[in-house]
Design goal:
One of its GO terms (cellular component) is DNA-directed RNA polymerase complex. This protein is of the alpha+beta class. It has five domains: about 70 residues, Hypothetical Protein Ta0175, Chain: A, domain 2 (Alpha-Beta Complex), CATH 3.90.1070.20; about 30 residues, no CATH class; about 110 residues, DNA-directed RNA polymerase, subunit 2, domain 6 (Dna-directed Rna Polymerase Ii 140kd Polypeptide, Chain: B, Domain 6, Beta Barrel); about 40 residues, no CATH class; about 70 residues, DCoH-like, CATH 3.90.1800. It contains eleven helices and eleven strands.
């Protein structure tokens, strides 16, 4: 009898041991005395001519006392605990730590670490944030993903051309066979001050190593197309390459297509070239001009170009290369400008070219006025015009909404 009603593994074991499947054998074998019937959970699954062979392997393992991992789990000797159960358990890491109050014992001390943390050799020699960073970045490392990686169809796949197994390994690396499918290469690193291009975490790579293939990778991208049929009896069609009317050769966009309209195997595809020449039927619609007038019509041209666009909230340049946004001047770049003493360049980058904003400030109370009037002093005598970043003005208003009043102390500007 198979426990828990899981019969597929037992059926596979029986068929591998010489049991003939009931669905494939002749009906005369069922009552033949030379064929022995095999039952599983009370159901006839087949026959065999060598019943001793079926049970010999199982009997040998039982006599030798061999048990698999699942046997210990079924008997409750090995137990999985989640985070909530661990709060009420006293778990010992080593056998010497077991006492009368201990509820569980770790199978191995290294099982405290997960797979990503277990791949790090000597993690106790690193700062704890470094181990945390590696656990996050180790999942994104390029390498070899499977033995059938050349035949897989993934949307995008990165493969390292020359992966190497690590020279220093841990127990986890051996258990998960990381040596057979590594993700990385062994590099020789020198921690030194060399030129000005190695500040903090920057690297200066050896060109000879790069020329020999260090860090080189392959990128596989998957593209697919679907030919559909539509309710109006139309369908998508795949067309061959379009020919140039003068040279009678395929145009540049269709040079990698075969006669069926699909890119041929081994083609070198350049930018803006078609891989699938699919023609889709489009249902026509009635259209009309907004003014319903023919001939020449008056039209407008927008004033705001891409160089004038800015974020609505902060009034700073838009972000992102795709939107032709501004370049970010971060904290480290700011520190370099401060150390260099380029204060005017710093002000030009962080305020003039970003979000310069003119405000009126009362020199008596230090609060921002509005249209020549200080609401706090109820006066218009002591207002001065200054320039501040618009983000600074937003900060003052945020603080005022929390009943925190920032006040500006003004000094007379002298040349």
């Amino acid at each position: 009898m198979e426990r828990h009603g899981v019969t597929q593994p037992v059926l596979r074991l029986l068929f591998n041991s010489g049991v003939e499947d009931l669905q494939n054998m002749h009906f005369s074998h069922i009552n033949n005395p030379n064929y022995h019937q095999v039952f599983l959970n009370g159901l006839l699954v087949g026959t065999t001519v060598d019943p001793a062979r079926v049970v010999r392997a199982v009997r040998t393992e039982l006599k030798d006392g061999q048990r698999i991992f699942e046997d210990f789990v079924d008997d409750g000797l090995i137990e999985y605990l989640d985070v909530n159960e661990m709060n009420d358990a006293l778990i010992a890491v080593h056998e010497t730590d077991v006492n009368a109050k201990t509820t569980h014992l770790e199978i191995e001390p290294f099982t405290l670490l997960g797979v990503c943390a277990g791949l790090i050799p000597y993690p106790h020699h690193n700062q704890s944030p470094r181990n945390t960073y590696q656990c996050a970045m180790g999942k994104q490392a390029m390498g070899t993903i499977a033995y059938n990686q050349q035949k897989r169809i993934d949307s995008i796949m990165y493969l390292l051309c020359y992966p190497q197994r690590p020279l220093v390994k841990s127990k986890t690396i051996e258990l998960i066979n990381f040596e057979k499918l590594p993700a990385g290469a062994n590099g020789i690193i020198a921690v030194m001050s060399y030129s000005g291009y190695d500040i903090e975490d920057a690297l200066v790579l050896n060109k000879a190593s790069l020329d020999r293939g260090y860090g080189r990778c392959l990128v596989y991208k998957h593209a697919k197309g679907t030919a559909r049929k539509y309710p109006n009896q139309t369908y998508d069609r795949l067309m061959g390459p379009s020919l140039d009317p003068l040279t009678r050769k395929p145009i540049y966009k269709h040079r990698v297509l075969d006669q069926e309209g699909i890119v041929f195997a081994g083609a070198r595809i350049s930018s803006k070239q078609t891989m699938i020449n699919k023609h889709m039927p489009v249902v026509s619609q009635d259209s009309a001009s907004p003014t319903a007038q023919g001939g020449q019509n008056w039209e407008t041209s927008f004033l705001h170009g891409m160089d004038k666009k800015e974020a609505v909230l902060t009034r700073q340049p838009t972000e992102g290369r795709s939107r032709e946004g501004g370049l970010r001047l971060g904290e480290m770049e700011r520190d370099c400008l401060i150390a260099y003493g380029a204060s005017m360049l710093l002000m030009e980058r962080l305020m003039v070219s970003s979000d310069e904003f003119k405000v009126e400030v009362c020199s008596d109370c230090g609060l921002i006025g509005y249209h020549g009037w200080c609401q706090n002093c109820r006066s218009s005598k002591s207002l001065a015009n200054i320039k501040i970043p618009y983000a600074c003005k937003l900060l003052f208003q945020e603080l005022q909404s929390m009943n925190i009043v920032p006040r500006l102390e003004l000094a007379r500007y002298t040349q």
